[in-house]
Amino acid sequence: MTKFQVAVLISGNGSNLQALIDAAALSDYPAEIALVISNRPDAFGIERAQKAGIRTAVIDHKKYETRSEFENALQSELTKQPIDLICLAGFMRILNPEFVELWRDRMINIHPSLLPAYKGLNTFQRAIDDGVRFAGCTIHYVVPEMDAGPIIMQAVVPIGQNDTKETLAKKIQQQEHKMYPAALKKIANGSVCVRDDKVTYESVDLGDDAVISPIL
């Protein structure tokens, strides 16, 4: 079986990368992590990938005068082998629209909020400060607008009365580690389609159960 070829872009620890690596190690998983790229030389995720025998590259954004020059180097590395999909996993760089369009419907990201709410940074504290009952995370296709694009999958986490940004982050990250491999699997096996800027699923039960907080 020819597996779906995936490149993962990171900037740091790579915990979501590790979740993808662990899933891809299963013989029946339809995707293979073929390449990991970091824009930071000290990113621990590079060590995770090398330990798993995955090809790695470091493209230090600080060595390039412009974002376009950095992205040209990124594109050059990505095209050294066939890549079906890019997964952004803690990749802390804004990408130019021109680069995003090169990978339209072939690049996904995970964001720690229930988009379209709380785009950008500091999502956990903002949700707590607003007194909302739920937070969560979203996997979406990348478009030129930041933290936008067709939504593939979301996980909902209730915000506890005593939650801090640290405890909420930990709860949400646990869901990220479950959800990212699951979303990639659905894309790789052809269950996910993008039509009219929205994601549709083939033969997938989306469920209809409601979640209420506080519990009735």
Describe what this molecule looks like in 3D:
The protein has helices spanning 15-24, 44-51, 67-78, 97-102, 123-130, 165-188, and strands spanning 4-10, 31-38, 55-58, 85-88, 107-111, 134-141, 151-158, 192-195, 198-201. It has 216 residues and is of the alpha/beta class. The chain has a single domain (4-201), classed as Rossmann fold (3-Layer(aba) Sandwich), CATH 3.40.50.170. It has a 7-stranded mixed beta sheet with strand order 3-2-1-4-5-6-7, with helices on both faces.
Q: How many distinct domains?
A: 1
**Unreliable stretches covering 5 or more consecutive residues:** none
Q: If you consult CATH, what is the topology?
A: Rossmann fold
Helix content: 25-40%
Number of helices: 6
The strand count comes to 9
Please identify the structural class as seen in this structure. alpha/beta
